[in-house]
Amino acid sequence: xxxxxxxxxxxxxxxxxxxxxxxxxxxxxxxxxxxxxxxxxxxxxxxxxxxxxxxxxxxxxxxxxxxxxxxxxxxxxxxxxxxxxxxxxxxxxxxxxxxxxxxxxxxxxxxxxxxxxxxxxxxxxxxxxxxxxxxxxxxxxxxxxxxxxxxxxxxxxxxxxxxxxxxxxxxxxxxxxxxxxxxxxxxxxxxxxxxxxxxxxxxxxxxxxxxxxxxxxxxxxxxxxxxxxxxxxxxxxxxxxxxxxxxxx
Length: 249
Known about the structure:
Elements lengths: L3 E3 L7 E3 L12 E2 L8 E5 L8 E4 L29 H8 L28 H10 L5 E2 L2 E2 L4 E2 L13 E9 L5 E2 L4 E6 L7 E6 L2 H13 L4 E10 L5 E6 L5 E4 L1
């Protein structure tokens, strides 16, 4: 699913889901993924605020396309109005509490369950990728939440404060065991940033290092509160919870 598409194969004429009209229903559009030739169509136009684009059953996405339904973001499953980006990322830095078994199961109410805002890093990342970088989600510009190829031009002075970054494993030695640090590079074309994850826990450092090493060919997505690291185009964050990282396969 996608919250924007292109009207032409060259991907020069963009259409946001919130701007789609009833007369657009039935038109074929192009997937935001330049490598994917899926036939995209507008869905749920009756509720324009919750409209989105989905691929045709017969002309679907290529394998592992980020806009495929199984990988994508359905706005109808989440509560946009209750989403607060900074608070959501702060929650990801909090270590998980150990789960305890209840002696008796909780009773379920008979009312309709209210959708929750995106909470996990995968949910927030999928939401950001589904929308165009210039679009907004609950009033916050997508490009100010996620740094990727689309939004890197919005960061001429660097990456500061709460952000999700899309990175990749640094070539060569990407960690410093004596400092408990892991270094990633941005996945963007052009301007290259270094992102340093700093750990207080040696156990967590080793676990994340091994995860990244085992999946070094994939994108690494990290949520954190970023600050200058003391060298050119390098930024760091304190890494305190596994919830801050996702590997996108």
